[in-house]
Amino acid sequence: MTTTQPAAVRRGRPGYDREQLLQVCVEVFNQHGYDATSMGKLAEHLGITKSAIYHHVSSKEELLELSLNRALDSLEAEYDAVHARPLPAVERLELVLRGSVRVLVEQMPYVTLLLRVRGNSEVEITALQRRRRFTRQVGELIAQAQDDGDIRTDISAVAAPRLLMGMVNSMVDWYRPTGIGGPEEVADTVAKIALDGLRAP
Amino acid sequence: MTTTQPAAVRRGRPGYDREQLLQVCVEVFNQHGYDATSMGKLAEHLGITKSAIYHHVSSKEELLELSLNRALDSLEAEYDAVHARPLPAVERLELVLRGSVRVLVEQMPYVTLLLRVRGNSEVEITALQRRRRFTRQVGELIAQAQDDGDIRTDISAVAAPRLLMGMVNSMVDWYRPTGIGGPEEVADTVAKIALDGLRAP
Question: Where in the numbering of this chain does the HTH tetR-type domain appear (chains A, B) (predicted)?
Answer without folding.
Answer: 15-75
